[in-house]
Amino acid sequence: KLGRAVILLGSVHEDKVVLVAGVTKDLTGQLKAGDLMKQAAAAVGGKGGGRPDMAQGGGVDAGALDSALALAVPFVEQGI
Predict the structure, then answer these.
(1) Domain interval for residue 19
(2) How many structural domains is the chain composed of?
Protein backbone atom coordinates (compact mmCIF):
# COMPACT_ATOMS: atom_id res chain seq x y z
CA LYS A 1 0.00 0.00 0.00
CA LEU A 2 1.27 3.43 -0.94
CA GLY A 3 1.90 5.86 1.91
CA ARG A 4 2.33 9.60 1.45
CA ALA A 5 3.49 10.30 -2.09
CA VAL A 6 3.69 12.70 -4.99
CA ILE A 7 4.16 11.02 -8.35
CA LEU A 8 4.91 12.52 -11.76
CA LEU A 9 5.23 10.13 -14.69
CA GLY A 10 6.07 11.02 -18.26
CA SER A 11 6.50 9.29 -21.58
CA VAL A 12 6.89 10.10 -25.25
CA HIS A 13 4.33 8.55 -27.59
CA GLU A 14 4.32 9.33 -31.31
CA ASP A 15 6.53 12.41 -30.78
CA LYS A 16 4.22 13.84 -28.10
CA VAL A 17 4.79 14.00 -24.36
CA VAL A 18 2.20 12.36 -22.11
CA LEU A 19 2.22 13.23 -18.38
CA VAL A 20 0.33 11.92 -15.36
CA ALA A 21 0.59 13.26 -11.80
CA GLY A 22 -0.76 11.91 -8.54
CA VAL A 23 -0.82 13.14 -4.95
CA THR A 24 -2.05 10.98 -2.09
CA LYS A 25 -5.20 12.34 -0.46
CA ASP A 26 -3.44 13.08 2.83
CA LEU A 27 -1.24 15.63 1.02
CA THR A 28 -3.83 17.36 -1.17
CA GLY A 29 -4.30 20.08 1.42
CA GLN A 30 -0.68 21.12 0.79
CA LEU A 31 0.05 19.95 -2.75
CA LYS A 32 -2.29 19.66 -5.73
CA ALA A 33 -1.64 17.32 -8.66
CA GLY A 34 -3.26 19.82 -11.02
CA ASP A 35 -0.81 22.54 -10.00
CA LEU A 36 2.15 20.23 -10.54
CA MET A 37 0.76 19.21 -13.91
CA LYS A 38 0.34 22.79 -15.09
CA GLN A 39 4.04 23.43 -14.41
CA ALA A 40 5.26 20.17 -15.93
CA ALA A 41 3.08 20.45 -19.04
CA ALA A 42 4.17 24.05 -19.62
CA ALA A 43 7.79 22.86 -19.54
CA VAL A 44 7.10 20.56 -22.50
CA GLY A 45 5.14 23.16 -24.46
CA GLY A 46 1.70 21.94 -23.55
CA LYS A 47 -1.17 22.13 -21.11
CA GLY A 48 -2.56 20.04 -18.31
CA GLY A 49 -4.69 20.00 -15.23
CA GLY A 50 -6.97 17.90 -13.14
CA ARG A 51 -8.14 17.16 -9.64
CA PRO A 52 -6.17 17.76 -6.45
CA ASP A 53 -5.23 14.06 -6.31
CA MET A 54 -4.77 13.22 -10.01
CA ALA A 55 -3.99 15.15 -13.19
CA GLN A 56 -3.08 14.60 -16.84
CA GLY A 57 -1.35 16.67 -19.45
CA GLY A 58 1.00 16.67 -22.34
CA GLY A 59 3.01 18.68 -24.78
CA VAL A 60 5.08 18.67 -27.93
CA ASP A 61 8.68 19.18 -26.74
CA ALA A 62 9.96 15.66 -26.07
CA GLY A 63 13.47 17.02 -25.49
CA ALA A 64 12.24 18.84 -22.38
CA LEU A 65 10.72 15.78 -20.70
CA ASP A 66 13.60 15.28 -18.24
CA SER A 67 13.39 18.94 -17.18
CA ALA A 68 9.63 18.68 -16.75
CA LEU A 69 9.96 15.60 -14.54
CA ALA A 70 12.64 17.31 -12.45
CA LEU A 71 10.11 20.03 -11.53
CA ALA A 72 8.47 17.60 -9.10
CA VAL A 73 11.30 17.94 -6.57
CA PRO A 74 11.12 21.72 -5.98
CA PHE A 75 7.32 21.55 -6.19
CA VAL A 76 7.23 19.13 -3.26
CA GLU A 77 9.93 20.96 -1.31
CA GLN A 78 8.05 24.27 -1.58
CA GLY A 79 4.69 22.72 -0.76
CA ILE A 80 5.64 20.87 2.41
Answers:
(1) 6-79
(2) 1
Evaluate whether residue 16 is within a structural domain. yes
pTM of the full structure? 0.91
CA 62 vs CA 6, 16, 19, 49, 80: distances in Å: 22, 6, 11, 19, 29
- Burial grade of 2 (CB within 10 A; 0-12, 13-18, 19 or more): exposed
C-alpha of 66 from chain center: 12
Give 11-60 pLDDT, tens digit per residue. Answer: 999 999 999 999 999 999 999 999 999 999 999 999 999 999 999 999 99
- Alpha-carbon Rg for the chain, nearest whole angstrom, is 12
